[in-house]
Amino acid sequence: MSNQQRPFSPWASTVVLTILTLGAFAPAASAAEFSAGEHTRKTIYHSPQTPGFTSWVGAWVMPDGSLMVSFTQATGPIEGRQPAPKDVQHKLTWPPPGQPGYDMTGLDLRNVHLRSTDSGKTWTQVSADSFKSCMNGVTNEAQTALADGTVLRGVFGFYLPYDPDLPQTGFVQRSGDGTNTWSKPAVPLDAAKYMTWPRRIRVLRDGRVVLLAGVARAAAGSQTRQEFSSFVEPALLISSDNGRNWTGPVAATIAEQRGGWTEEFDVAELVSGDLLAIFRRASDTNRWQSTLKKTDDRWVAQKAGPSVLPHSGQPELLATREGPILHVATSGIHSTSDGGASWHKLDLPGTAYYPRALQAADGRIFVFGHVGGDDAYGKVDQAIIMDIFRLKSE
């Protein structure tokens, strides 16, 4: 993938907001003063087909305390399907050269949603809306619940080339009935100016919503996937009306460091009110980290640098009610209580692929991911895995 950058105008690097992390902050304590206990792991879902394809998990807590998980499921024949048209293959730079098994054209693709009302003991499928694509996922990671029970999700419309009526950029949808039905797509940024890939949706303490996204300053659909990946920058979009309207993009990196990033990053609020940010880079295999500094009621991105955290996929951060912020990854779970200046590895196994983490009302931490990796269809018997543990003070 080329990382050559075209000229890029700096975005606004400040925004008036206060970032939420669910639950009240405990007094700061050293991350080394905490350990993990009561760890369990189990499979909560397997596709009706073997080998199964279930990938790209989202996870959140509903206002009533129930837990929800979402993921992409594909079923259908492994061989004998028609490939994507050549123009679609070119536009999406897909499937990867010499790997036709990644083309999902002709499969039954669904966004599956599960719900647990008994703290993860049992799970019930509540919905499975269908979509058509040559790609292996378009949403699920960017989903969460609002205080009124509305589920909000971000979808990468560029990955839906078989439906010309859909925006060819990131869009947001709402569900008021527990994910059974969804609203019409709403584009958060002007599609004539930006291509946007929603990656995370977080709810803020004051009720605002922040959408973490990869953004390229280009009209929707004007770039190939490879071009978009070369120009993308991590940014925040902010909504003060429950995701109906958005302001931004707010740059997550300083202007002098533009280039070489990906759309994959996450943020969590520190006790000080600053934002700890962890990034996945395109130009190297290091995790990078920085801080968005709070100055009065404004946020300013600071210079980023390599982190001691080991390389993995999409960063996942969880601010716990006990105080530490967790970095959750296949390479292990680390905690920090000093804004990322130091990280302490918990005595836990690495997670399933592309994990999502939440903390339930009883304090237990749940981590969801899928078996395997970014796999060609039919090559790995995937399933959805759940880890549960508690943080314990030493």
Summarize the SSE layout with pairings.
Blueprint: E1 34-45, E2 53-61, E3 67-75, H1 86-92, E4 108-116, E5 124-131, E6 143-145, E7 151-156, E8 170-175, E9 195-203, E10 209-216, H2 225-231, E11 233-239, E12 247-251, E13 261-269, E14 275-281, E15 287-295, E16 298-301, E17 305-306, E18 317-319, E19 325-329, E20 332-336, E21 344-345, E22 353-359, E23 365-370, E24 384-393
Antiparallel strand pairs: 1-24, 2-3, 3-4, 4-5, 6-7, 7-8, 9-10, 10-11, 11-12, 13-14, 14-15, 15-16, 15-17, 18-19, 19-20, 20-21, 22-23, 23-24
Sum up the structure in keywords.
394 residues; mainly beta; Neuraminidase; five-stranded antiparallel sheet; four-stranded antiparallel sheet; 2 helices; globular
From the alpha-carbon coordinates, what is the Rg to the nearest angstrom? 20 Å
Q: Judging by the overall fold, what is the CATH architecture?
A: 6 Propeller
The rounded distance between the terminal residues' Cα atoms is 46 Å
**Helix and strand pattern:** EEEHEEEEEEEHEEEEEEEEEEEEEE
What fraction strand? 35-45%
Total number of distinct structural domains: 1
Largest sheet composition: 5 strands, antiparallel
Give the integer mean of the pLDDT values: 90
CATH class: Mainly Beta
List unreliable stretches of 5+ residues.
Answer: 1-28
3D shape: globular
Class by helix and strand content? mainly beta
Annotation, overall tally of beta strands:
24
